[in-house]
Write a structure and sequence with these properties.
- The chain has a three-stranded antiparallel sheet, with no helix packed on it.
- It has twelve helices and three strands.
- The protein has 353 residues and is mainly alpha-helical.
- It is globular and about 50 Å long.
Amino acid sequence: MSGGTSTGLFADNLKGVLLAVVSSAFIGASFIVKKKGLKRAGATGSRAGVGGYGYLKEPLWWIGMVTMIVGEIANFVAYMFAPAVLVTPLGALSIIVSAVLAHFILKEKLQRMGVLGCLLCIVGSTIIVLHAPEEETPTSVNQIWELATQPAFLLYAASAVAVSLVLMLHCSPRYGQTNVMVYVGICSVIGSLTVMSIKAVGIAIKLTIERINQAGYFQTWIFAMVAVSCIITQLNYLNKALDTFNTAMVSPIYYAMFTTLTILASAIMFKDWSGQSASSIASEICGFITVLSGTTVLHSTRDPEPASAADLYTPLSPQIYWHIQENGEVSVNKEEDLLSRDFVAIVRQDYFV
């Protein structure tokens, strides 16, 4: 390899690294700005965690969205200069940025074990990425369509959709407010499909710029519709996760699960596992175990956010109170009746367990 070629590759890699670092900084900061917006919107209306969409009228949330978009664009451009094994692990920097900013801005205390969990997630994800199988870059949308319609990937896509529907329809109403894995799981599973469809759209745009028009193929528009649908779903449940749980916990778990599932989806779609050595496979398994350990540590160190007084002491019915008499009998009293000391307002049971 000539000196000029070597210098050019180094310059491209340097550009990719700088863009990836900038991307991580913007994305990590966007978590904090969006959560500030979600909190401000929740103070005047229904919270996103319970299905409210008042945050769409909050300017601070939109600033966070713009910040995230800028970060994603920088990340997309970084892949044009540097290989994925160099750019993808740097996404872990967004975890550090969001955790540090949350500690100082949102006053979400990052405990020592939480720091250890972050490090385990970062190390495990890095191991997975560094030992992930290499993939051949498709040269047309038709080629990606053939890869996307092969039985193995169709099975993965169907499983991803099925798992997402179970999480959305069954788990979310029951456990979404108490288990971080529900909302983050939806974002991560759908996110793996988002990356596959976004890559197809990106190749179509690149080929079109090179005067090989891909807009005439129906596959391009199918990939585009899938990408838009997945992105909207991701944003919806990511907002719920940020509004319900500690940011320092959401960011690492989301990063670890999203990275893992994306690598798995890419490996299935592009059939790159067949060329893996035994040492690489063993390293990837160790990476999975490390990520799982980090996720467990983070979940165990959750610092629950205090509920508001309105949530804690709102009666189930604003018009009826229960009166416990001296003889133990219970009678019902209307709201206009004067309350005595032996009146008890029924409060939500889940705050006592």
